[in-house]
Each structure stands twice: as C-alpha cells, then as structure tokens.
Amino acid sequence: MEDIRLNVALLRRKVPNLTTAAKSIGIRPATVSNLCTGKIDLGKAEIRTLVGLASLANCKVDDLIIRGEKLDMIETKIKALDFFAPLVKEGTTGLVARPGMGQLVILAELLHRFKEGDYTTVFLLPKTRQDELETEGITELANYLTESTEETFSKLSEISGDILLITDNSYVVSGQLLDLQEKMIKEGIKNVTTILLDLSGEVVDEDIPFGPLETVWQLDADLAARHLYPAVQPIFSTSSLVEGVGVDQRHFNLRQRAQKLLRRYKELRSLVVVYGLDKIRSNELETYERGERLEAYFTQPFYVAESFTGQVGHEVSLSQTLQDVEYILDGKADEQSVDNLKYIGSLV
C-alpha cells in the first residue's frame, strides 16, 4: 500500500488557529491532531474531514496529502523520546508541560547533546523578560541567540548544515513563527528542525497544543511528582514516525506492547496507591511489576544535571533501547529490582 501522510507543514502555515477553525466546520480538534501525528491513518480518514481541512487551508485535497516521502529521525539517545516519540528531522515538535515538570531540563539536555554533535542550535528568545529569566542558564548552551524572527531568519540563512531552532509559544500565538517558516520555505531553507516550549503551561489545556505538529512530547505530572525523569508520558507522547512511516516494524510493535503494558500498569497502580498490593489479583501482579520495571528503565541521567544529582549522564542508542525494552517485556528482567533499573543507561 502506498505510504501517504498529511502535509502538516502546509496546514500549519495556512491555518494558524486550527482548533477554532476545525470546530467551526464540525471537525473534532483531536481528530486533526491525530491525523497530524499519524495516530489516525490518513488512508482511513473520512473524506469530509479531508475536504474540510482543504477548505480551511484554501487548497486542494491532493495538496494536503504527501505520497511516498520517507520521514527521517533525529536520534537524541534519550530513551523515552526516541522510543515513544522520535524527533522528526525538519519537522516541528512541541513540549507540552506545566511548569516544574522538567521541560527546561530536557531542553537543556537536547541543546547540550546537539551542540556536541553535528547540529547548529539557534535559540529565539522569549518575548517577555520573565520568560527570559526562566531560561537563563539554558540559552547559553545554544550556539546562537536571536531576539526576533527577522534576526533569526538572517542567522538561519547564514548557517550551512542541519539546524535545531528552539523557541516558545509566544511566537506561535502571534503568528510570527508561521511567517518565519513560510519565508524559510520560499527561500529554500529546509534543514531546520523546530522545538517549541511553553513556559506558562497553558498549551496543556489546548486541544491542539502549538497547532499541527509532527511530534508531541507530553510530560506527566505523576511521573514528575515521583521524581521519575524525564517525565515523558508514554501514551500521549507521539510522532509521525512511529504512527505513520519512518520506523521499522520491530520498533512499532515494541512500542505498542510497551504502551499496552504501561496503560494497564497505570490502572493497577491507582489501586495499589489506595489499597496496597494485596488488592491486585494474582494474575495481574506480573503485569504490575513488569510495568513498574519498564517505567523505571525509562528514567535516565542527564549530562546537564550531573552537578545536581551526582549521577553521570548516559546516552543510549535506539537499537540498544529496543533490545532492553524487549528484554523487560519478555520477562527476562523480572529478577531485577525496580531500584536497580532507575537512572541507568542501558541494561548491558
């Protein structure tokens, strides 16, 4: 079957306020969001939905469909991100979190890792002074800092090679980011991967946080409260890569198995917290304990936090992560304690 996916970049440019626009013509925002990330197979989308989106974008239905184009992954070597919601090269990723859930630490770690790698990092500074103060200590990890979309475009034009652009939701709300992306396309600048954050935490309550995205990294309040970092929500964090095309079948299958286990584990945990382990049926105990081990495995020490935690940062390749997750899912780690799986790199 032909690989097809939604032209998220076009939709993002043409319909800035997609949530309101979609609702106005009877399309559920969740449907649009799932189509953007690939959670809903575009081939199974209702014709009326595609026609409605095309009318909003003032284009043909065919313009909204990309055929046969492979998405590429940027491997961060952060286990939870690469496994559950891989970063799409030249796509737009949104960090969805409330303050205090660790999004700034994730951002700092990414900047550190990319600065050491082959990517040039550009941080378009927040518009407000308060937000600038919150990102102090993080912005210094970027190769370049800019203060306006005009200055950012000028800098992007000068850089050869792959670029990681970081900015916050204020530029999405004002429409300036969309204008910048439109200008980049017109000028043939295609090597930019964008990551968006929201220091206010307001996007958590939106139907489509930041608008159409290729990747969503949603953080989990419960994981953060239990100090299990990075607190990546394994069910709602998603990417066009794992929901559509771009990852191999093994990754796809393991992710589905892991999500199924963690979903049931979370349900069981709500009983354990109130009533204790005794209330779990014996045939569910293995599911609970295995889910607890898998949850612990996805914690990871970061380089940027070494001076605070005393733990040495770790990188874990995706191939190793897949091997480790399979090992845990198959019960081969059942003899290991949960504590021994927390804040490690790989199982090897």
Automatic annotation (TrEMBL):
MF terms in GO: ATP binding; proton-transporting ATP synthase activity, rotational mechanism
- Keyword Membrane among record annotations: yes
Keyword Plastid in the entry? The reply is no
| Swiss-Prot/TrEMBL keywords | ATP synthesis, ATP-binding, CF(1), Ion transport, Membrane, Nucleotide-binding, Translocase, Transport
Q: Where does the record place it?
A: Membrane
One GO cellular component term of this record is:
proton-transporting ATP synthase complex
Which InterPro entries has this protein been placed in?
Answer: ATPase_alpha/beta_chains, ATPase_F1/V1_b/a_C, P-loop_NTPase
What family, per the record? Belongs to the ATPase alpha/beta chains family.
In Swiss-Prot or TrEMBL terms, this protein is called F-type H+-transporting ATPase subunit beta
- Native source species: Psychrobacillus psychrodurans
